[in-house]
Write a structure and sequence with these properties.
By secondary structure, the chain is an alpha/beta fold. The chain is built from 9 helices and 5 strands. α7 crosses α8. The protein is globular, with a radius of gyration of 18 Å.
Amino acid sequence: MNLLDIQWTKTPFYGVRNMTTYLRSLGYTVGKCHVRTLLRDLGLEAIFPKKNLSQPHPFHEIYPYLLRDVAITRPNQVWSADITYIRLAEGFAYLTAVIDWHSRAVLSWRLSNTLDASFCVEALQEALFKYGSPEIFNTDQGSQFTSQVFINELASRSISISMDGRGRCLDNIFVERLWRSVKYENVYLYGYRSIPDARAGLTDYFNFYNKERFHQSLNNKTPWEIYSSEQVRVNQAALN
């Protein structure tokens, strides 16, 4: 399963046939039906570079996508959240994070062994408490993010709610890129055994990601350099 997760992160367009061929090239005797079952268990789906962890709830309201052709020019203009799967030596974990689109800064994150909405709400509440409110908050249409408790946190602060179109992974591309970095630069390297191990390791990683990891798209600055310095500038401009 680790091999499938690693290869899927590298080639999200691989379906059952290509994944079967890949495993056979490594010497594994495996059939398509078994590979299909494993991919389904992992929540991995070809073509869409997104793990199918967030299932829609049939009675939850879905909001339109608000960010098409919108220029992202300042911190706290757009935040988004997503969930990814992490395989542990002793089971599974689910990771959610809140990211600022302009700076790529990770504002908060949580690990959970279940997919209920509570860990997503906790991450949202922490980000709002520490950094104020964004103008727009974007998520997918998963039940965690369409739950009333999550929506209420946003609506009570008059934050505009945006949701990806079904199957449109690129609508939340900055979080998708974050997950790739997390997997290749941390999770796959350390092979965490348990949630406490993963939590400790990811704490160090996200601190590195925010404050030490240079991004070419940010003119070789760190996310925190962009977020903190430009947020000060925006606040000063608002006072003038």
